[in-house]
Give the backbone structure.
Amino acid sequence: MDLKVIGEFIKQQRKAKGLTQVELAEKLLVSEKTISKWECGNGFPDTSLMLPLCKELDISANELLSGKRLTSEEYQKQAENNLITLKSQQEQSHKFLLTLESVLGFMSSVTFIILVFVASYANLPTWVRIVLIVIGFIHIVVGIHFCLTIEKDAGYYECQHCHNKYIPTYKQVMFSMHRGRTRYMKCPKCQKKSWQKKVIK
């Protein structure tokens, strides 16, 4: 997807409908700055805004993603290309999030260990030791929470019995046994438990 091309297309269609940026922003319940950002190619509408935007501009989602009006012959071909592009971008996003999870988990653990080590062995007043340990615990709890949220949302888990790919609940991720990114969980489709691997595709 070329954000500059899509932005120019949004601008053209907005003007064709006789709308100002302010008027379009009011219809979509966003700021004028957001519309300007899209039209300059510095951003893309959130998925929750794509269909309302298309409705206001009288275009299809496929045309929005393509950045141009499509003939009936072009429509099917472009739809397939757009799906492939979106899938690829989603996979890249999931890979980035999983890398971020690893970094966040490592940094949280290291910070916790350092703070507890300092509190245990440094010559400090008792109240300072307690504060350091509390900060360490808060840091690792917050880090674990964000890591589990990323672990839940990035990619899918695949059942070893029926090969169903699904996103588990936060509770499932939190309380399941795991070895790295492989977790022992119940599949929502076949209801069987197995060691399920994290997959991106």
Observations:
- The chain is about 65% helix and 10% strand.
- The domain at 3-70 is CATH 1.10.260.40 (434 Repressor (Amino-terminal Domain)).
- The radius of gyration is 24 Å.
- The mean pLDDT is 89.
